[in-house]
Design brief:
This protein is an alpha/beta fold. Helices cover 24% and strands 24% of the residues. The structure holds flavin-adenine dinucleotide.
């Protein structure tokens, strides 16, 4: 039986969709043990799902939880790997996780593959590259576990309730290198999280600061809103919505690009999306090079028709 260690940089009272996806993926591969630096007050209740046989945390996780970017998270993962000798160590493809798992890979002298879309029990990781036109499969040649981060939206999350797993504290404490001074919950937009959403509506300079149509379209589709750097720099939306090389990387099933030219730095953040639909009035815009469907037209004329058609089909 393949032994899978799943790393979450933190566990809240409810699992995120991406965390549920990762546990679904792990359950299909073998026995799963979760390793994390912190647990919510409800303990392991969110992890009481089929396949999860145990939870490992840092020492005294109740009074001294270990949060990203504390480098001790890597020590937690390495200590857990020392206890379990897993075949696979899996995490989400998010900056906090990649940071901790990269450090853990150094400690364990193990290989790390980021941005995978799938992993097999024998330690092969698949990646989608060049705008999903190629799939590559890689295997770590050294002994030791394969450490991989998995992109969201690669599997349908299906979790079955089970008994609460037991918690075992590892002999690793939070380091003094990082001190969290304040934590503040971001105000909810009512839309899905950008990095986890299965549909993203992204907009650029073309909207000229008027978000009414892209917001309406996003809400009809249950989508997250993303933006180009021009749009975030202009202050039309918060910087956290920026998709691209210096923003977030998204990999939704459907990415709608509205009034975005498709510069290479923008493509770097969205080219592995499943289906890319581009709306741009310039037929030579680079975004059309990677779009599956393109509409050449003024977004102010195209979007109202799209919204009307979506509403008609939804009945
Ligand atoms: C180091 C570095 C890092 C960068 N990182 C990022 C990044 O992470 N993310 C990012 O997005 N950019 C990034 N950029 C900037 C990037 O190079 C582009 O400048 C930016 O993506 C352009 O944004 P845009 O497409 O919204 O604007 P523009 O390039 O100005 O394109 C606007 C598009 O809208 C179309 N348009 C205009 N009006 C309409 C209309 N009414 N209907 C339909 N279409 C219309 C135009 O035809 C045009 O194609 C980075 C640049 C550098 C140098």
């Amino acid at each position: 039986m393949t032994q899978v260690l799943v790393f979450f940089d933190r566990v809240e009272t409810e699992l995120s969709r991406a965390q549920a996806e990762l546990l679904t993926h792990a359950d299909a591969l073998g026995d799963t043990v979760v390793v994390t630096g912190s647990l919510p007050v409800t303990g392991t209740a969110p992890l009481a799902v089929k396949g999860v046989t145990g939870v490992l945390t840092g020492a005294d996780h109740v009074n001294a939880p270990i949060y990203a970017p504390d480098p001790a998270l890597a020590d937690v993962v390495a200590a857990a790997a020392g206890e379990l000798d897993p075949d696979l160590i899996l995490g989400l493809d998010a900056p906090e996780t990649v940071d901790a798992l990269a450090r853990a890979a150094v400690l364990l002298e193990a290989g790390l593959i980021t941005g995978a879309t799938g992993v097999t029990g024998s330690g092969a990781a698949t990646k989608s590259v060049l705008a999903d036109s190629w799939h590559t499969t890689a295997q770590i040649s050294e002994d030791g576990p394969l450490i991989a981060t998995l992109r969201p939206n690669t599997v349908l999350p299906v979790l079955v309730d089970a008994a609460e797993p037991e918690v075992v504290e590892l002999d690793v404490a939070a380091s003094s290198a990082v001190e969290i001074l304040k934590e503040a919950e971001l105000p909810s937009t009512g839309r899905p999280t950008l990095t986890e959403a299965s549909t993203v509506v992204a907009f650029g300079r073309g909207v000229e600061g008027d978000l009414s149509l892209v917001e309406e379209l996003a809400d009809e589709l249950g989508a997250a809103l993303g933006a180009s750097r021009v749009a975030t720099d202009a202050g039309w939306i918060d910087h956290s919505a920026q998709v691209g090389q210096t923003g977030v990387i998204v990999s939704p099933k459907l990415y709608l690009s509205v009034g975005i030219s498709g510069a290479v730095q923008q493509k770097a953040g969205m080219q592995t999306s499943g289906t890319i639909v581009a709306i741009n009035k310039d037929e030579d815009a680079p975004v059309f090079e990677i779009a599956d469907f393109g509409v050449v037209g003024d977004l102010n004329e195209v979007l109202p028709q799209m919204i009307e058609e979506i509403r008609r089909r939804k009945g």
